[in-house]
Specification:
Length: 274
C-alpha cells in the first residue's frame, strides 16, 4: 500500500530505486528503477542494492501485516517487522544514508487513545509487538508512528481497498477511532522531512484529527463515488489515536482536514490509476 505510493511521489523530483520480492515490477511503477527478487531480510540482497544504487536515503515501507496468514507467525513477523529495520538502519549508518522507518499505532492497545511519544506502548497482538521491537531510535534514523489509508496494487488488506470492493451494505464502526493519514499525505510528509530537515532523527507520532471509521467511510464513499449503505455500529470500541503535537511543533506541520486529505488522495490516485 505505502511502498508504491512513495515511489510514485518521489520519482517526480528525485532519483529513485525500489525493491520488490517478486521477479517483476508492478505495472503501475517504472521497471527501470526496480530491483527485483530482493528479500528485505536477506543482507546479501539488500547490500547488493546499496552497492549498485548508492542511496542517500532509504525508506522502509516493508512490513508483515496482521491481515496476512503469515502475520500471525511470531517468527516470520519478528524477522520482517523487528530484525530487518535494525539491519537496514545499520547498513544506512555504514553507507552514510538517512533511514526513515514507518511504524504503527498498533504499538498501543487502543484502550484510551490520544497517545504521546512518552506513553508506554502496550501492544496486544503479534503485529504490534514485533513492530514495536523494530522501531529504530538512533543517529540518522527517523521512525514515524502512524496509521495509513490508501489504495493497494494487488491486495485488499486495508480499509479503503476493502470498502471499494464491497457491493452491499457494510458496517461502519462509530466507536473505532482513527487518526492516521493517507498514503499520499505521508509521502509528502516524508519528502518534506528529507529535503527540509536533513538532521531530523528520533521517534515521532504523525497523525491527523481523530475520526471514527464510520465517518471516514462516509467521506470515502462520497469522494470515490462508491454509494453503498453504511450502517453505524457502536459495538466495537477502539481508540488508537495519536497525539502528534511534538511532530507538529518540531517540523511546523499542520495536517489537512479529512475531507481535503481524501480529495487530494483521490486526485493523485486518478493520475496513476492507484
Amino acid at each position: 500500500m505505502l511502498g508504491h505510493r512513495m515511489v510514485l511521489h518521489f520519482l517526480k523530483n528525485h532519483n529513485v530505486a525500489y525493491t520488490v520480492r517478486g521477479n517483476a515490477p508492478p505495472d503501475a511503477l517504472p521497471s527501470d528503477m526496480c530491483f527485483p527478487n530482493v528479500d528485505v531480510c536477506n543482507l546479501t540482497d539488500v547490500m547488493d542494492v546499496f552497492i549498485r544504487f548508492k542511496p542517500d536515503a532509504v525508506l522502509n515501507c516493508a512490513g508483515l501485516v496482521k491481515q496476512k496468514p503469515m502475520g500471525q507467525s511470531v517468527v516470520a513477523s519478528s524477522i520482517v517487522n523487528s530484525v530487518a529495520p535494525h539491519q537496514l538502519a545499520s547498513l544506512c549508518r555504514t553507507a552514510g544514508a538517512r533511514f526513515v522507518h514507518i511504524s504503527t499505532d498498533c504499538v498501543f492497545s487502543g484502550r484510551r487513545g490520544n497517545y504521546t511519544e512518552d506513553d508506554q506502548p502496550d501492544p496486544v497482538d503479534v503485529y504490534g509487538m514485533t513492530k514495536l521491537l523494530g522501531e529504530v531510535n538512533a543517529p540518522g534514523c527517523l521512525t514515524l508512528r502512524t496509521s495509513i489509508i490508501g489504495r493497494e496494487l494487488n491486495t485488499r488488506h486495508g480499509l479503503l481497498e476493502w470498502f471499494l470492493h464491497q457491493k452491499e451494505a457494510v458496517k461502519g464502526f462509530s466507536s473505532a477511532i482513527f487518526s492516521g493519514v493517507t498514503t499520499v499525505e505521508l509521502a509528502r510528509i516524508v519528502e518534506n522531512l528529507l529535503v527540509g530537515y536533513p538532521q531530523a532523527e528520533g521517534l515521532y507520532h504523525v497523525s491527523a484529527a481523530p475520526i471514527s471509521k464510520y465517518d471516514l467511510l462516509r467521506l470515502v464513499s462520497a469522494n470515490y463515488d462508491h454509494s453503498i449503505p453504511i450502517m453505524p455500529d457502536d459495538s466495537f470500541l477502539l481508540d488508537r489515536s495519536l497525539d502528534s503535537s511534538l511532530f507538529r511543533r518540531t517540523f511546523s506541520y499542520a495536517p489537512p482536514g479529512w475531507s481535503d486529505m481524501i480529495q487530494q488522495a483521490r486526485a493523485e490516485e486518478n493520475k496513476s490509476c492507484r
